[in-house]
Design a protein that fits this description.
This protein is α+β, with helices and mostly antiparallel strands and 209 residues long. The protein has a seven-stranded mixed beta sheet with strand order 2-1-5-4-3-8-9. It is elongated, with a radius of gyration of 18 Å. It is 29% helix and 22% strand. Helix 2 runs parallel beside helix 5. The relative contact order is 0.18.
Amino acid sequence: MCDDLGYDDVCCGLKVGQQVPDFKIDIYDPVKKDFGEISLEALKKEGKWTVLVFYPADFTFVCATEFAALAGLYDEFKKSGAEVITVSTDTKFTHLAWHKDEKSLENVKYPMGADRNTSLSSLFGVYDEFTGLDLRGSFIINPDGVLLNAEINFYNLGRNMDELLRKLKGNVYLSKHGAEACPAKWKAEGDKTLTPGANLVGKVAEALK
């Protein structure tokens, strides 16, 4: 499916560190209560980070809990300079209906992408051709269009959206402090970081005290 949009050179499943081809996708916009389109090219021009959250299907169960968790953190994603786009192989019309009917989605304001021809899902390696559904894939793309984080879960395991936000904040911080590294328990700017070098070898515990 990737070659439908000219992605055959990277099909299927981008690797971290690769440039993401520009893409466009139809969306349902819960704020405008209308349909539209969003593109990576436009987001890059605005200097935004792009967070893609693929999920199996509308009107399902674990997905509703993920959407609610993501909605509660959406303002924090935006403050970090990112746009969040949820993506499934459902139509934009089904997105509208789910948003209207499911109370778990009442606070959702992020665009809901409709990948009907599965090209975008295939590009990121989350499309399951045996079920026709997307796996739970989360991807962070920097304002230059480079893929920096990738995570894929199976259908029945919901994601921790706080961890996705932590990863975004970490990448934003490191984009401005390239000589540093964020340790496992780093949460936000102001927390201790590591600066790799000869003096740090065998002294990580001491550096984090």
